Amino acid sequence: MQFRTKALGLGIVCFVAIAAAQSQQPARQTQQPGEDVPASADKNRSDLSQDRNAPRFDAARFIKDHDKNGDGKLSKEEMPATAQSEFAQIDTNKDGFITKDELQQHATRMAQQRPQLVEVIFYTIDFPEEPVTMQELQTAYDQLRKLDKNNDGKIDESEVKNFREQRKKERTEAIISALDRNGDGKISKDEARGLWADNFAQLDKNGDGVLDRQEIEAACAMKRMANAGGNNNPNRNNLDRNNPQPEK
Prior knowledge:
The chain has about 250 residues and is mostly helical. About 50% of the residues lie in helices and about 0% in strands. A two-stranded antiparallel sheet has the order 1-2.
């Protein structure tokens, strides 16, 4: 998904932003630690990402709108001024012109990239969903302020690293709190639920019959790497529904 604000002028920005939003808009339900994600939720996300009715960038129309000499392709001079800096990137065969196929391929690559954080913020502002928008912006603002420990108005690498470690510990403690029934700070095989139980042997690296904090953190890291790998990552389906519902 990409809401890039400088790419190919306003026309492609709107098309790509709308298509990306409709195909990858996250569900509003929040998953709590110790809660299993219903299979239907995964299916809904998959259905959204494959929605053939979502708007797509029309490369042929874009070329028609900017092709001044009518040769069916765009020179750098014919490109909108805001997109000329990306001409070399779009012109993959380096012949000095951009064809419909090159333009469409660039739009597709752009839509598959991770969005820059500021672009998500701008999108949230430009396409408000009251009252969710204000809640989301306030939450983002509050979290960014937490990063700035010395209150100098800037976020440095050490502050990000420390906050990342803090969040890792919070996630681990939340999972243990949800599943650890005997209060020993670990998850035994009997206490494990959902995919924690299904993958217990794989996650129990030292084979001692319990999952300690280090093994739980490693499992969460595996989930993040699987998610980063996308649908083609073989580990993704194994870890997608990571936090199971503890037994009542």
